[in-house]
Amino acid sequence: MKHKPFLSEAEPQSPDHRRARSAPPTGDGLLLSAVELFVGVEKHDRKEITVFQELSENLLPQTSDRDRRRIACLLVRHPDTPDNILARLAGDRDPLTSYPVLRHAPTIPEDILIMQAERGPDSLRRAIADRTSLSESLVHTLASHGGPDIIRMLMERDDVSLERQLVGAVEGRGEIIAELGEDLAARGALNADRLMSNFPHLTRELKAEAIACAELASLVESASRGPGRAPRPVFKAHLLDMLHKSAMTGSAGQFATDLSFTLGLPEATAARMLLEHGGEALAIAFKALGFDEARTASLLIRLIGETHSLAEIRRLLQIASNISDGAARLMVRRWVASDTLGLPAGSPLPVYQDAKRTGAIPASLPAREEAGTMAEFKKQA
Q1: Which one, 77, 135, 240, 367, has the greatest CB density within 10 A?
Q2: Residue (of 192, 201, 203) closest to 171 by Cα position
Q3: 97: buried, middle or exposed (CB in 10 Å: 19+, 13-18, 0-12)?
Q4: Residues 72/60, Cβ–Cβ less than 8 Å
Q5: What pLDDT was estimated at residue 227?
């Protein structure tokens, strides 16, 4: 019997796996010889199985990686292999040992499957994702740690619910949404709330759809308030003046700190707005803050002009001009709810000040040359 397919598919990637150590020479080869004798006999009685189990339990810890890999390939196909020996091999830290058992053993304890799904690499997650049945907790673990290929495998399974099991685990993972967002949207797994929450990670086409969802939601929100109850401006003119000055005279990092403080977003999220390839989130944030078109233009040119063409800046200005104030604010509130408060899509949205009171402001802010600016921000917001 050839076992090369087992070994060729499982490629260790993590540092822990690369550090797998060979066992000392004591007893080396003994267990492999016993396994070869065991699998050479088609059927064993209970006493023989018990003796083999005790021998395997004693010798496995001292067996080299090379022998354990061969042992796993031999034992996983034999019907009399004790379940606890298969479980130990399935939970082995060496992925070349655990792969054939995870892929082919009919019964493996749930805790071992979850442990290996967390540990990885994706070659092991692929073996687990291809098993006959998966529990909800195992699907969630695979989706939370696996790469795009693992998510695709789960999406193709009939027993995995995209809406109930999969999307909730991946919507906070920007790299997955960026690559699989269109496919998830085509399957109806990204509703309006999730499109708005994951806006920075979407393709340009899906961003346009998210903005349309925000406009519709803003109209519904306005209608629920009734006539003559337009929302008052959230940010005072003096605060916007200071924020504009921060962008014009300070560094990008300083502005990201000020922007995150003002909107109640994590500083890392504000920093990503400045680095994002498209720039749409930054333009929408400026509209939500209440900057006019002239100031938005100067801010975009100052902050991302070096990495965006003039045509791109014009496109971003058009987005900021066309999106309504209500839609822009609703979009930012959704980012606050998702990135800062950890609320799932569809939860009631906080106002900016509420977000800051719950801990959105960093515990310690970088030192600034303009002394007292952050204190003034807090006073004015």
Answers
A1: 240
A2: 201
A3: buried
A4: no
A5: 65
